[in-house]
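In response to the reviewer comment on reproducibility (Comment 2.3), we provide here a single inverse folding case reported in full, input and output, so that an independent group could reproduce the run without further information from us. The structure tokens appear first.
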């Protein structure tokens, strides 16, 4: 009853605030005033229902959980277990493989972009999700891969396959160089430095007109070649689709294997407590540098795919907005969760595209869904399952 009264009060207050906007209409030409009581009633009713539902959801979220006894281990949810079942993964892989044959070029292009962001999210998941190093300049490594391919093709006529490993290795080297001066930084300070690093890279690319063509960018970049076969535009997009699908599968497998490796466990220990990890004998310098280099490598690889897909790159494509989207994918999906990153990337990339029919309201709906997800699922869509210990029962009670 208390929640109902609060919701009723919220409805009345909202109706009072909305009264000048929806309750009154003044016609200055005819010099008449009309009262819209029905509109005001609908506003009050909608506000009251939303307020009541919101309070019920918050009460359910804050409801105390039953206390577990003895040593327990965190297990994946039933939905996560179903999605990660081998048969489920096989069915999803088959669906993605046949998708380009059932859709048009526009849908295929959207799916390519979504898979690119999945790989970017998995790369940043190593740095932020596993190692706990907040990196706001991840787009710098993405830009590095794209511009390495662009300049190698512009000046030395290198193809996609020749530039791909070079871009990945140079991005990893840049990640290592970034990691060296920030080894002693944590939290907000680390975020500020990496944010500045990303902006420095973008400004260097924009102002080096003699080398990178500045704001004009680099155009006419070729798509990947299939041996000596000449492909038309549709076949090139189809080939690129299957290449990025293979890269996504490789990135998912690598992330999963890294989580269970010695280095992956060192990253998780570093994320939980840096001092405790150091006390247990973990080399913080090597562990942090390995995280930065590995995450940057994947960004550099995807940068080459982006340049090949777009056939044109310029510094405006690598703004802070890209870093924010990739970081949102990691946080929304669940820190360290491979499946969560995949689901969050699909949600953040595909949902705005398929809400275009709502025109100006689509981003409002998108933002509301994100806020609701982070309120009611603060650990992410699919929290990473890991063992933890709870209080043992008091046998004397």
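Designed residues, in position order:
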């Amino acid at each position: 009853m208390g929640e109902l009264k609060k919701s009723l009060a919220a409805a009345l207050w909202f109706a009072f605030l909305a009264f000048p906007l929806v309750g009154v209409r003044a016609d200055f030409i005819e010099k008449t005033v009309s009262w819209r009581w029905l509109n005001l009633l609908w506003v009050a009713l909608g506000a009251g229902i939303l307020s009541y539902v919101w309070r019920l959801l918050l009460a359910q979220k804050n409801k105390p959980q039953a206390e577990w006894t003895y040593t327990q281990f965190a297990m994946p949810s039933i939905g996560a277990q179903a999605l990660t079942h081998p048969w489920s993964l096989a069915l999803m892989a088959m669906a993605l493989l046949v998708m380009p044959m059932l859709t048009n070029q526009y849908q295929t292009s959207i799916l390519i972009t979504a898979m690119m962001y999945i790989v970017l999210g998995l790369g940043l998941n190593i740095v932020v999700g596993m190692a706990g190093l907040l990196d706001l300049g991840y787009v710098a490594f993405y830009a590095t891969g794209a511009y390495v391919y662009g300049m190698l093709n512009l000046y030395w006529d290198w193809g996609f396959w020749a530039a791909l490993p070079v871009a990945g290795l140079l991005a990893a080297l840049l990640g290592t160089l970034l990691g060296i001066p920030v080894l002693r930084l944590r939290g907000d300070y680390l975020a500020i430095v990496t944010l500045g690093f990303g902006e420095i890279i973008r400004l260097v690319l924009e102002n080096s007109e003699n080398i990178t063509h500045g704001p004009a960018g680099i155009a006419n970049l070729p798509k990947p070649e299939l041996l000596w076969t000449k492909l038309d535009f549709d076949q090139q997009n189809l080939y690129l689709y299957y290449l990025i699908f293979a890269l996504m599968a490789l990135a998912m497998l690598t992330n999963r294997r890294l989580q269970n490796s010695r280095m992956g466990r060192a990253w998780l220990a570093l994320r939980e407590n840096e001092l405790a990890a150091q006390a247990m004998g973990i080399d913080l310098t090597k562990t942090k540098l390995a995280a930065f280099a590995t995450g940057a490598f994947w960004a550099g690889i995807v940068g080459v795919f982006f340049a090949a897909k777009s056939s044109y790159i310029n510094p405006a494509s690598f703004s802070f907005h890209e870093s924010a989207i990739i970081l949102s994918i990691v946080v929304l999906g669940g820190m360290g969760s491979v499946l969560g990153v995949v689901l969050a990337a699909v949600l953040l990339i595909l949902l705005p595209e398929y809400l275009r029919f709502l025109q100006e309201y689509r981003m409002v709906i998108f933002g509301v869904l994100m806020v609701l997800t982070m309120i009611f699922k603060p650990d992410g869509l699919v929290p990473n399952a890991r063992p933890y210990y709870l209080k043992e029962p008091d046998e004397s009670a």
